[in-house]
Amino acid sequence: MEWKKYLQVGAAGFLSLGVLAACGDDTEEPMDTGDTEEEAPMDENTDDNMEEDMEEGMDETEENVEEGMDETEENVDEGMDEMEDEMNEEDSES
User: Rounded CA gap, 52 and 58, in Å?
Assistant: First the structure.
């Protein structure tokens, strides 16, 4: 029974040494894959197209801001009218 235990430990050690020997002492030079840094092609993303897209986006943003300001102004006007009505009602009740 003792021999079985030593046989398993010896086999594991032998396999470990074999794997380490196969992986170590790499004398080959790394392969040159030919990958060099190159600029990516500029398909449709030219500076002109980007500027046009930005201008379109700015136009849309300006329109949205103007609409929001108009709505806010209307809401403020309505709120002021309601406050004036409430104040007039309080004055007339007094």
Answer: 10
